[in-house]
Specification:
Layout (H helix, E strand, L loop, with lengths): L2 E10 L6 E2 L4 E2 L3 E9 L4 E6 L3 H4 L3 H10 L13 H12 L3 H19 L3 H5 L5 E3 L2 E3 L4 H13 L4 E5 L4 H14 L4 E5 L6 H10 L5 E5 L7 H7 L2 H4 L2 E3 L6 H10 L5 E4 L1 H4 L2 H12 L4 E4 L6 H11 L5 E4 L12 E3 L2 E3 L2 E3 L8 E3 L2
Parallel strand pairs: 7-8, 8-9, 9-10, 10-11, 11-12, 12-13, 13-14
Antiparallel strand pairs: 1-4, 2-3, 4-5, 6-17, 15-18, 16-17
Helix pairs in contact: 3-4, 6-7, 7-8
Amino acid sequence: MKIKNVRVYGRDLGTIRPYTIAYKTISEVMNAFVEIEIENGIIGMGASNSSKMVVGQSVEETIKHLNDVDFSYLIGQRITQVEGLLRETHAKFITLPGTHAAIDIALHDAFTQFLKIPLVNYFGQQQQALSTSITIGIKNVEETLSEAEEYYRMGFRFLKIKTGLNPELDSERVIKIAERMPDVVLRVDANQGYNTLDLNEFVKRTAKIKLELIEQPFSTENFIKCVNELDPSIAQFVVADESLRNPKDALQLLKEASGCKIFNIKLMKTGGLLVAKQIAYIAENSKVKLMWGCNDESVVSIAAALHLALSSRSTKFLDLDGSLDLIKDVVTGGFVISKGKMSLTGENGLGIQKKD
């Protein structure tokens, strides 16, 4: 069965809740989409929303580039040759993660729909469901508590708090949530906003509450150096996010920042599932815990990440809330969230259905 056609488009999915992180404010959500159609009518879907600051390609650049891609390398090829097509896609777009991710995910979806199996079955499912955190941006204390209470009423018990501007104010927000909702598990994400003095101050101020992890507190340029300056009791809770984009980064972190015990894989950094799977294999063989994160993304790519996350025994943390605040999307399905826990639908491919 051969690939018949490839379609590319962009959509602003909007957000009901604009928010601020350490280096920018997000108020709109553009996504790039790729549809790969095979001869029997199956359409595989891929999507991406890469960050210019993190990987060097914005979603606007992705959409423009996808529209210029010569897809003759895919059209006419048998979908059963998917592994070769994925490697060729990787070779062509290794420096363009947004482009790479959208095509990679669409190929995986088309192929596993063709096989009539869920994508997770192709990888080999190891876990059935995991709780996801839901994210609160940088806000004042009152706004932070109000949003936390809203998520609590929705059934979420894992909250991730964006920090990175001021350790004193950041710690106050986190402590207030812990006091108000003592059964909530708290994570923080400084988005490269701290140095070691800042982080040590934040940890000292929050010593009486339990923080599950601290995501990318340091800049990518200083991450390894700063992790090695930390007490091991603190370093073990630090997550490599922006500092982890590919297998080379993973191997470097293992060698040069061995105190860092948690890797955050995002398909928007790796360029899709092929490379993400390689990082997951490295983690599995190195006793590193995996966290799966996202940007503001369509259900298409969030579902793809969940399929791969649940195929790894090393997956301990999910942060796949990127589609929950969208005003609209081009698909439905993909996964189910019940009391904050994410699970798959059991349907073929990504398990998504395109809206009319």
